[in-house]
């Protein structure tokens, strides 16, 4: 039976969506402005700011740097975070509570404090502000999100499946890869995506330990001086990229569904979809 | 078997390699700096003094800053929860493409650059912005309301930034709710509100806890939003720390403020978890 | 450009494997220079490339505002990440006092013979590349009579339409206070300072808000939400260029000169090359390009700007006053605290 949503519920949901989207819509409309300033409504429509933005070497390099940064730090955070979540949730060991708190601490900490502290410790590791320290710093920031998502996925996880696998002779590695990982896959992917986003948008940490060349920093530098629609244009490009990514993942999900046997109509009634990767991508 | 005791630590190894040198150590350095002395020339000089802590805890200005930040964090967490809960409940019951699309919109504020979002809000909330123009045109007000660069504007900006962080954990928790429980409750004669209170909310509690922790911590440590949209008379902790550290080069003082902030947040998390364990053990995360 | 991007991607992917080697030490003839970002990226075109053509050394620019550059120098003192740092003058002094900079003198720069005497400060922390100042920006259509004096801010017609810097925005706020004190008399006299604060306190009702981010008043004034605000001349000029109603006002009492100094970190491996670069920036063609493109006052006395830009760039050194930086540094905390308590609250 399809869930019925009341009028009040729909209205509230629409209002929330509008709230979430409003500033972004405004910014995107300004990106198409034909004027020189951030006027809203714009005096006319034009694509010229997209030309300016895409021709701005600093923006494009910034986008590339940010993408590389986000991907690398997300991978690190996911590996570290998944391991930590498994350790905390599957085993009872001394110091477990402490580890659990420690792993979530980076969220609680003002990022600029971490940035300042890292700047001091970089010289100990003979590192200079740049790409590598920023990847590591962002990974630290993304770690709690991965842990949170994987923990949520583990909450409904049946450890007896693991034991069964081990009893049947599969080694721990194989058990992990073939049993554990697919079942918590949702959480791992959600965590990785969260870590990716956190890195992509980070300013306060990059301010200290990068060379000032990530996209959000470039946007901020531009906004603090010129404040012209090219900033809005490049941000619109990023939104466009993510929309494309989303549509691709939808298509991928549909393709996957077609490859799997469709369940008989009655059995899945009322149950939320068990695996909707698109939802978390 | 002895090797079994090692297993959790093996799983923790990657996280340890990441956190110890790049998180624990910087924290320790910050903590150590808080006991040093700020020299007038802008360097922190090795010493052992509580002067920085005395300064932060004794000066009404700094106490005000902490108070402001706590209040704003609580306010935004409460607002986010109130707004997100009905929305998350609806989103959890959506299926397929509709759900995926709405999720994408929910994530949107997170990867549109915070600079862009702030800029959008500036255009909307300015004295001559969209909101004021509309209200004036409708005759509801005679003079533009000052929202931008006031506390109200900053709250809106922060709420916008942290709402997705409340929505997602709530949806994750609510998705696990078996609809047959709802039907059973209805069948047993429970009214709408009763079901809501005794079935839905407890199931959502882990999500509520996770979301509140994320939003609260996020607001407490937010530097960018108050810098871009904040009210100058309403100082928050993170910009104050940056101001002392980078603009004044008062490293030791900044270290003291940072340590206190961290201690405050940790204390609140621990207290919250203790309360949960007492009253709703299935939702405790520690 | 395409090659650079592929190189960037390759570096990005290889860096974790190679363990983040120092790019600087790999190439001895690359000069690492900082600037403030945004419009300053024009430096690569008007300074970096010509310098490379003339001397054969590549110039690599990165963006650092003064506070973050100072922070990085302090934490990386033994092996600084830059060879030439752009500091606003107050930070240059601070860096010098912290033992972070290599001391220079006027004789290090032959081209300085054509520049203002204040170009290289006594203590020798660097040489000014250009001079910004704390001017006023105003909407000519909203202020009535043209503004000529700092005290025109107190006009009753401007009530609620003035924006002042917040104390958190230390550089602008202090600069503004200095301008008012200087306009009333001797900047070093406590009586004059008291008078200035009394007047500022009286200005409170006229103030729409106190801006933290330097771009805020520009956004407000372009929209007509405010009518006047003290602001850095370069920023005013950029707004005025885009919005004809916004004008730059250089009050007759004088505006505080805020030189942007090129400084050399003390442990830089390329000190001679750095000095050569700084000297290059003091040459006439580069100074002319800086004035035209960045709209800041040149340090050279023989540079002229096209007539169209004349209202946007102050080339008359008599309109500027240079403060005693040591005095300013000593007074900064006190004056900003007073400003916070008496004016902002």
UniProtKB/TrEMBL annotation, chain A:
GO terms for biological process: transmembrane transport. It comes from the Bacteria. Belongs to the binding-protein-dependent transport system permease family. One of its GO terms (cellular component) is plasma membrane. InterPro entries: MetI-like, MetI-like_sf. The chain crosses the membrane at residues 12-32, 63-89, 101-125, 131-155, 176-198, 230-252. Residues 63-249 form the ABC transmembrane type-1 domain. Residues 262-281 are annotated as: Disordered. The keyword Transmembrane helix applies. This is ABC transporter permease. PANTHER family: INNER MEMBRANE ABC TRANSPORTER PERMEASE PROTEIN YDCV.
UniProtKB/TrEMBL annotation, chain B:
Residues 66-272 form the ABC transmembrane type-1 domain. Belongs to the binding-protein-dependent transport system permease family. CysTW subfamily. It is found in: Cell membrane. One of its GO terms (biological process) is transmembrane transport. Its main location: membrane. It comes from the Bacteria. It is a multi-pass membrane protein. CDD domains: TM_PBP2. This is ABC transporter permease. The chain crosses the membrane at residues 9-29, 70-91, 98-115, 153-174, 194-216, 249-276. PANTHER family: ABC TRANSPORTER PERMEASE PROTEIN (PTHR42929:SF5), INNER MEMBRANE ABC TRANSPORTER PERMEASE PROTEIN YDCU-RELATED-RELATED (PTHR42929).
TrEMBL record, chain C:
GO terms for cellular component: outer membrane-bounded periplasmic space. Keywords: Signal. It holds the Pfam family SBP_bac_8. GO terms for molecular function: thiamine binding; thiamine pyrophosphate binding. Residues 1-23 form the signal peptide. GO terms for biological process: thiamine transport. InterPro entries: SBP, TAT_signal. The keyword Signal applies. The keyword Ribonucleoprotein does not apply. PANTHER family: ABC TRANSPORTER SUBSTRATE-BINDING PROTEIN, THIAMINE-BINDING PERIPLASMIC PROTEIN-RELATED. This is Extracellular solute-binding protein.
């Amino acid at each position: 039976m399809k869930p019925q949503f009341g009028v009040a519920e729909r209205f509230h949901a629409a209002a929330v969506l509008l709230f979430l989207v409003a500033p972004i819509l405004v910014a995107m409309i300004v990106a198409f402005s034909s004027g020189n300033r951030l006027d809203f409504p714009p005096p006319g429509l034009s694509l010229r700011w997209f030309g300016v933005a895409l021709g701005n070497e600093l923006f494009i390099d910034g986008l590339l740097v940010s993408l590389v940064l986000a991907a690398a730090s997300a991978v690190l955070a996911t590996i570290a975070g998944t391991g930590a979540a498994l350790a905390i949730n599957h085993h009872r060991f001394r110091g477990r509570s402490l580890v659990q708190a420690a792993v979530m601490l980076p969220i609680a900490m003002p990022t600029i404090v971490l940035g300042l502290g890292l700047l001091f410790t970089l010289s100990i590791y003979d590192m200079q502000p740049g790409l590598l320290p920023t990847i590591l710093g962002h990974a630290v920031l993304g770690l709690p999100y991965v842990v949170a998502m994987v923990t949520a996925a583990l909450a409904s996880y049946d450890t007896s499946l693991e034991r069964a696998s081990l009893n049947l002779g599969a080694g721990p590695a194989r058990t992990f890869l073939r049993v554990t990982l697919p079942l918590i896959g949702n959480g791992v992917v959600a965590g990785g995506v969260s870590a990716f986003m956190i890195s992509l948008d980070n300013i306060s940490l990059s301010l200290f330990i990068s060379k000032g060349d990530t996209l959000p920093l470039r946007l901020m530098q531009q906004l603090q001086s010129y404040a012209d629609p090219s900033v809005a244009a490049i941000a619109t490009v990023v939104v466009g990229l993510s929309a494309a990514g989303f549509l691709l993942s939808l298509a991928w999900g549909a393709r996957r569904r077609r490859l799997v046997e469709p369940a008989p109509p009655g059995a899945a009634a009322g149950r939320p979809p068990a695996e909707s990767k698109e939802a978390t991508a | 078997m002895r090797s079994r005791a090692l297993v959790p630590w093996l799983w923790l190894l990657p996280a340890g390699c990441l956190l110890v040198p790049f998180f624990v150590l910087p924290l320790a350095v910050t903590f150590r700096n808080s006991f040093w002395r700020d020299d007038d020339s802008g360097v922190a000089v090795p010493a052992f003094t509580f002067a920085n802590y005395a300064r932060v805890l004794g000066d009404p200005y700094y106490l005000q800053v902490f108070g402001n930040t706590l209040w704003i964090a609580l306010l935004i967490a409460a607002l986010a929860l109130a707004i997100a809960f009905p929305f998350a409940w609806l989103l959890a019951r959506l299926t397929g493409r509709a759900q995926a699309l709405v999720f994408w919109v929910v994530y949107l504020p997170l990867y549109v650059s915070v600079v862009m979002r702030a800029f959008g809000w500036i255009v909307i909330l300015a004295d001559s912005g969209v909101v004021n123009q509309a209200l004036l045109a409708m005759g509801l007000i005679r003079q533009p309301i000052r929202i931008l660069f006031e506390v109200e504007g900053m709250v809106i900006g922060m709420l916008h930034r942290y709402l997705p962080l409340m929505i997602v954990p709530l949806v994750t928790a609510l998705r696990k709710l078996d609809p047959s429980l709802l039907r059973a409750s209805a069948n047993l004669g429970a009214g709408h509100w009763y079901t809501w209170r005794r079935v839905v909310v407890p199931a959502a509690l882990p999500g509520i806890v996770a979301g509140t922790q994320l939003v609260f911590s996020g607001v407490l440590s937010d530097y960018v939003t108050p810098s871009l949209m904040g009210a100058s008379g309403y100082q928050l902790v993170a910009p104050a720390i940056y101001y002392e550290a980078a603009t004044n080069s008062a490293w030791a003082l900044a270290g003291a403020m940072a340590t206190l902030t961290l201690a405050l947040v940790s204390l609140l998390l621990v207290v919250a978890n203790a309360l949960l364990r007492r009253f709703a053990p299935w939702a405790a995360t520690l | 450009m395409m090659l650079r991007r592929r190189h960037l991607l390759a570096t990005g992917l290889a860096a974790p494997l190679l363990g983040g080697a120092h790019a600087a030490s790999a190439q001895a003839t690359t000069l690492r220079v900082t600037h403030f970002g945004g419009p300053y990226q024009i430096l690569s075109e008007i300074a970096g490339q010509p310098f490379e053509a003339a001397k054969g050394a590549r110039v690599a620019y990165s963006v650092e505002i003064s506070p973050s550059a100072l922070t990085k120098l302090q934490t990386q003192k033994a092996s600084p990440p830059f060879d030439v740092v752009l500091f606003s003058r107050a930070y240059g002094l601070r860096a010098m006092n912290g033992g972070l900079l290599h001391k220079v003198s006027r004789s290090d720069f032959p081209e300085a013979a054509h520049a203002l005497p204040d170009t290289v400060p006594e203590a020798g922390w660097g040489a000014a590349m250009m001079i910004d100042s704390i001017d006023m920006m105003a909407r000519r259509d909203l202020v009535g009579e043209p503004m000529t004096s700092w005290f025109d801010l107190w006009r009753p017609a401007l009530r609620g339409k003035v924006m002042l810097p917040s104390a958190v925005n230390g550089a602008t706020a202090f600069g503004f206070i200095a301008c008012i004190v200087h306009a009333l008399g001797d900047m070093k006299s406590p009586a004059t300072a008291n008078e200035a604060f009394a007047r500022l306190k009286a200005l409170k009702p006229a103030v729409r808000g106190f801006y933290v981010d330097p771009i805020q008043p520009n956004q407000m004034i372009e929209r007509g939400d405010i009518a006047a605000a003290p602001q850095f001349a370069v920023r005013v000029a950029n707004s005025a260029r885009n919005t004809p109603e916004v004008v730059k006002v250089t009050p007759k009492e004088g505006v505080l000169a805020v030189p942007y100094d090129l400084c050399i970190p003390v442990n830089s491996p390329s000190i001679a090359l750095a000095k050569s670069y700084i000297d290059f920036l003091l040459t006439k063609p580069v100074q002319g390009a800086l004035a035209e493109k960045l709209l800041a006052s040149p340090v050279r006395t023989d540079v002229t700007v096209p007539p169209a830009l004349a209202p946007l760039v102050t080339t008359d050194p008599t309109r500027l006053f240079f403060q005693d930086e040591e005095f300013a540094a000593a007074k900064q905390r006190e004056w900003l605290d007073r400003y916070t308590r008496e004016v902002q609250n």
